[in-house]
């Protein structure tokens, strides 16, 4: 899509997503037990009020979409503490907490707020090639989608890092709901423009779009911003002429680059270690990210937000730049 065409977008087609949940909960709120075994799910169990508070902070910062906090409410994490039998209960709770946040904010927020139902990897992120057998995985995704169904406006199959992982998630969701679905893929942080499975984006994305012609949006997420900048060129080429695709979304992380499978393995070895992820300073500056997003918009992107390490301050900066008349506030955590 040419830059000139971007300027014809109606303002209401532009949407701002929220940002990180897990890393923002970890960095900003009091610690809870089992965080390094359960990640953000630990807050569902021990401090659900912090999740509501963070959702509200993103809305106050200008987000049009908040995403349910069930990214790690999946077998790979729950098995760490023997809680797999609570998966559907906790996923359902994540949807209810998002609804509570929106309902609480409704009297003070004039714009509509959408809730995206998170459909995450069933394993740790970036390990899509380790997906369970297709039918087994699809059945698990059915359970997640069904638990979220009463609470969400659409589903966001995010951080999909292999073709099989994407197909399993989309298959499971479409079996239980006719609500809109967005697909979001994650790329290795290198120049190859490949998923973490090493499958080329330009080959994987057409297969997905042909098999699921009712998809509403295509997105790239949980890669570094420079990786997404390059990947969007391929996305725009593939979706050209596909009129069902109404949104092109992008939301980068603020992690150290993850260029190959070795880096993925080291990442999760540290997480499974006695101290979890080592603390690291954030490298992404809010103004730099805002300017990067301007380049994404020039390419044809009309939905932006943040992933791991990108918190409310980033969303506020994007909101002020994208919707200057919108009243936004950067609110500290209420703890």
Automatic annotation (TrEMBL):
Entry-linked InterPro entries: HCY_dom, HCY_dom_sf
Assigned keywords, A-Z: Metal-binding, Methyltransferase, Transferase, Zinc
Domain Hcy-binding: 3-322
Coiled-coil ranges (or none): none
Biochemical pathway: Amino-acid biosynthesis; L-methionine biosynthesis via de novo pathway
GO biological process terms held by the UniProt record: methylation
Protein origin, superkingdom: Eukaryota
A Pfam family reported for this protein in Swiss-Prot or TrEMBL: S-methyl_trans
Cofactor: Zn(2+)
Molecular function GO labels: metal ion binding; methyltransferase activity
Residues holding Zn(2+): 222, 307-308
Protein name, as recorded: Homocysteine S-methyltransferase
Organism: Oopsacas minuta
């Amino acid at each position: 899509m040419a830059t000139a065409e971007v300027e014809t977008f109606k303002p209401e087609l532009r949407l701002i997503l929220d940002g990180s949940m897990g890393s923002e909960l970890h960095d900003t709120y009091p610690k809870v037990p089992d965080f390094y075994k359960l990640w953000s799910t630990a807050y569902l169990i021990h401090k659900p009020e912090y999740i509501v508070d963070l959702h509200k902070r993103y809305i106050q910062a200008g987000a049009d979409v908040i995403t349910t906090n069930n990214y790690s409410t999946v077998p790979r994490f729950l098995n760490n503490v023997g809680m797999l039998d609570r998966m559907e209960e906790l996923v359902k709770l994540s949807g209810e907490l998002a609804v509570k946040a929106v309902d609480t904010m409704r009297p003070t927020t004039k714009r509509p707020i959408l809730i995206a139902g998170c459909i995450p990897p069933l394993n740790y992120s970036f390990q899509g090639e380790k997906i369970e057998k297709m039918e087994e995985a699809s059945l698990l995704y059915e359970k997640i989608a069904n638990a979220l169904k009463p609470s969400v406006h659409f589903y966001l199959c995010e951080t999909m890092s292999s073709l099989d992982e994407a197909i399993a998630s989309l298959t499971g969701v479409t079996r239980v709901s006719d609500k809109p679905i967005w697909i979001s893929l994650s790329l290795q942080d290198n120049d190859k423009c490949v998923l973490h499975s090493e499958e080329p984006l330009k080959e994987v994305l057409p297969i997905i779009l042909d098999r699921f012609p009712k998809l509403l949006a295509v997105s790239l997420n949980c890669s570094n911003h420079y990786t997404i900048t390059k990947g969007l060129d391929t996305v725009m080429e593939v979706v050209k002429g596909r009129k069902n695709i109404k949104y092109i979304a992008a939301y980068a992380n603020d992690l150290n680059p993850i260029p190959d499978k070795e880096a993925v393995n080291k990442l999760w070895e540290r997480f499974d270690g006695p101290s979890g992820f080592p603390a690291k300073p954030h490298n992404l500056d809010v103004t730099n990210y805002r300017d990067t997003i301007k380049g994404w918009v020039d390419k044809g992107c009309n939905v932006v937000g943040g992933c791991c390490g990108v918190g409310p301050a980033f969303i506020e900066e994007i909101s002020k730049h994208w919707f200057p008349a919108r009243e936004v506030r950067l609110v500290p955590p209420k703890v």
